[in-house]
Amino acid sequence: MAITIAKENYPSFASGVGVSGKRQVLYVNYGEGATKDTPVWTLLGGLETNTLSISADTSTVQTKESGYWAEGTVTNKSYELSADVIMKRDNAAQQAIEEFLLDDAITAEKGALNIAVVDLDTKEYLSLVVVPKSWEITADGKDMIKKKLSATGVGEPKKMTGFIAAAG
């Protein structure tokens, strides 16, 4: 069976208009003078994939008064981050994550990392405090590298606007 391809069936786009979706990058709060309250955002790289799974545990009871429908309350909230990051080889943020995982003194003293998942188009971002669980190489090139970051959230994810990173 032959299929006829016709140019009329393709959608039209204005010159220079992107159609690929949002551009997201990952930053790490790391650098001279970096604190929890005044972050110094250091670029890690672009996100090829980004999954943030938020969940809540509940405690429920069923009573005659509720018609045996469960009544409950949230007892625990948590989140997990999984991201494939494409970056320049050996950048400062990459090394900060690796040292956090490798150096027991840093891990014990600092406890967690602060990262930002930033939408470059809107400057909206999620500020996340996470403990990395894995940091694995998935593709390796001469100047570029791709790694998969898996991390468990600590505390509340914060939706923010107006992301500003230091020039450099």
Tell me the layout of helices and strands.
Elements: E1 24-29, E2 41-62, E3 70-88, H1 92-102, H2 104-110, E4 113-119, E5 125-140, E6 144-153, E7 158-160
Question: What's the gist of this structure?
Answer:
The chain is built from 2 helices and 7 strands, in the order βββααββββ.
Describe this structure in words.
There is one protein chain. The chain has one domain: Irregular (Factor Xa Inhibitor), CATH 4.10.410. 11% of the residues lie in helices and 49% in strands. It is built from two helices and seven strands; from the N terminus they run βββααββββ. It has helices at residues 92-102, 104-110, and strands at residues 24-29, 41-62, 70-88, 113-119, 125-140, 144-153, 158-160. A six-stranded antiparallel beta barrel has the order 1-2-3-6-5-4. Strand 5 (125-140) and strand 6 form a beta hairpin. The N and C termini lie far apart (58 Å).
